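task queued by scheduler; priority normal; single chain, no ligands, no partner chains; default sampling; output format set to C-alpha cells
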Amino acid sequence: MIPQPFRFAGVCFVILTASICGLAQKDNLALFGEVKIRVTGTGQRTTPPEATLILFQPSAKELARPTGPEFARQKVMNGGSYRFSDLPVGEYELAVEIELHEVSRTRIFLSSLHAPFGLQHDIVVDWQPPGSSPKSATISAADVHERTGANKRLFKKAEDAVGQKDYDQAISLLTQLVASDKADYQAQTILGTLLASQGKYNEAEQAYLSALSAKPTFAPALLDFGRLRLRQKKFAEAIEHLKRLVEVQPDSGEGNLLLGDAYVQMNQTSQAIPYLQSAANFGYPEAHLRLAWIYDTTGSKDKAALEYEEFLKKKPNYPERQKLEGYIKVNKKN
C-alpha cells in the first residue's frame, strides 16, 4: 500500500539504554545503538520496513525546547544498527521515520561524562502497517481523483513499487502519470512526499503546488507541504499551509502540532498555544512538552508543571521522567 499520510497510524515507544560503548575523543562523541521495529495490527504487510533516523542539533533552549536544525540522517534496516559520530556536547533530538512518517522523537543529552566513549541509545518501535488500525484516516469519496485506465495502471504500479521500497521506480511512475494529468492531486502529493524524502525539495515543492492548484483544500498536500516548509526553515510559509489545513481538518493532531511548532520558531508563542492545546487533545502528548517549554520561558512555571504532569500521565515510561517530576515538585502550586 502507498504510504499516504492520511492512511498511516503509528504507535511507538523508545527505550533509552545509557550504557557506555563506542569510541569518541574528547568532546567528539558518538551516539549509536540498535533499531528494532515490531509490527502490530493486521495489515497486509508483515515484514517490518526500514527506518530513517534524523538527528537534530541543539537549539540552546532547555526543557522541551523546539528542535534545532537537522544535523544528519541515516537509513537503518530492522534489527540493524546506527551510529552518529563526531558530535559535540549538547542536547539533541533523535526522530524516527517509517515510510515517510515520523513515529518517534526522543531528547538525548551528550555530555563530557560520555568521553572518551559514546552513548548507546537503543530504539524499539511498535509499528502498525497502513490499514491495520481502526484509527487510520480514510479517503473520502470527494478526495478520489478519476483516472484513465492507463493512469490507473501507473498508479497501481507506483503503489507496488512503494510497497517494495523501490522509491526511485515509484517516482518515475508517478512522474509519468502527472505528465499526462497534472490535475491528479493525489499522485502529485505522493510524488512530492517521495521527492522530499530524498532531499529533492525544489521538485517536491512543484508537485505540492500542482496538487494544491488542482485541489486547494486537499489536506494531505497541505500537511506534507507544511512539513517540507518547516524542514526548509520557511516558517511563515509553513504557517500559511498549516493554517489552511486546520481550517479544512480541525481535528488534525499532527497539523495542529506542526502549526504550533512553526509559530514557536517565529517567536509567536501566544499564537502557538491554542494549536498545541488542540494537538494534545487530538492524541499528540508531545504537545504538552512544547506548552511546558513556552510557560517555563515566560515565567508561568506552575502552568509548565501542569503540562509536564499531563504529559507523564500519557507517557509514564518517558526516559526523563525523574527530571520532569523534579520540576513538577518544585513548581506546582498546591
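post-processing summary
- The domain at 5-127 is CATH 2.60.40.10 (Immunoglobulin-like).
- Confidence is low (pLDDT under 50) at residues 1-26, 60-66, 131-142.
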